[in-house]
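Hey,
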Amino acid sequence: MGKKSAVDMLPEELRTRLIRLLQDPAVTQAEIADLINEAAGEPLVSRSSVNRYAQRMRRFAEKNRQAKEIADAYIDKYGTDNRVKLGKVVNEQIRLAVFDLIGEIEEVSADPEIKKTEIADMLYKLSRGLKELEAAEKLNAERTESIRKSALAEAAKAVEETAKSNGLTSDTIEKIKKQILGL
């Protein structure tokens, strides 16, 4: 997108310290800016840049909290064995996030500071991400179908063995497999 934030451009150790300080409710953002600038030996961050970064961190943390709550609620309702459905929910959440990003790109594209090539690059990356998401979803569906077929084949074999040992005819066994297993 546009220019990196002042906090993102900090050396790693200062950025790590800033993040740690933001998590301490006893330290104000103004104090954090002063501490970071003092440690750097020059003014690298402003109070407003620390505030913007803190807001971004809060939004990110809130979205993660919401996603975790959704996943936990889903697992509570459907159980951990139903991960395929959870994966579909996650994929849908990612799609929604991408569409939100596209909306933000439209807003940012009006900014004359941002080059059209940067916007094109963002859209390209988003479309690649969606393509990879679709491919992963297709692969998951294929794996699920393969597992289902394998389980049905095993069940059919067990039905056949049990039925034969109990004296059922081949015709009756085939009817059972067709009606119960759909084979």
